[in-house]
Design goal:
The protein is α/β, with parallel strands linked by helices. It has one domain: 3-Layer(bba) Sandwich (D-tyrosyl-trna(Tyr) Deacylase, Chain: A), CATH 3.50.80. The protein is built from 2 helices and 7 strands. The strands form 2 sheets. Strands 6-5-2-1-7 form a 5-stranded mixed sheet. It has a two-stranded antiparallel ribbon with strand order 3-4.
Length: about 150
């Protein structure tokens, strides 16, 4: 699994010009799932993300986690995180998990994160063509690979 985590002032997802989800102050998490992934590490990664100290304290030092700032989380599936660009100019997505494998793992991650975050985790629409809008705060962007 690959996670791109962005600290945001706001983020939203639209599908077919309709608002699906939006958050203020928190994290936008882009999640890519590979052919080799299973659910055995999801709990560990969800715990790590919930405890990430990427939010500023009163001294403007990244010392607080999502719950300490009462922030929100938006999770968006993104198979293109597994793009292979080694050959030619057209990315290959052969390493990205098929939907029948990826969707259950995506849902399990959201369920686990919901157990750890004070506010309900919001999501995009799995497999949809989404328009994601965000205001990156910092900018702070992290990549976690499992």
């Amino acid at each position: 699994m690959k996670f791109v985590i962005q600290r945001v002032k706001s983020a939203s997802v639209n599908v077919e010009n309709k608002a699906v989800s939006s958050i203020d102050n928190g994290m936008l998490i882009l999640l890519g799932i590979s052919n080799k992934d299973s659910d055995e590490n999801i709990i560990r990664i969800a715990n790590k993300i919930a405890k990430l100290r990427i939010f500023n304290d009163e001294n403007f030092i990244m010392n607080k986690n999502i719950n300490q700032i009462q922030g929100e989380v938006l999770v968006v599936s993104q198979f293109t995180l597994y793009a292979d660009t080694k050959k030619g100019n057209r990315p290959s997505y052969i390493n990205a998990a098929r939907p029948e494998i990826a969707e259950p793992l995506y849902k399990t991650f959201i369920l686990e994160l919901n157990k750890l975050i004070n506010k309900k985790v919001k999501t995009g629409v799995f497999g949809a063509d989404m328009m994601v809008d965000l205001i990156n705060d910092g900018p702070v962007t992290l990549i976690i690979e499992n």
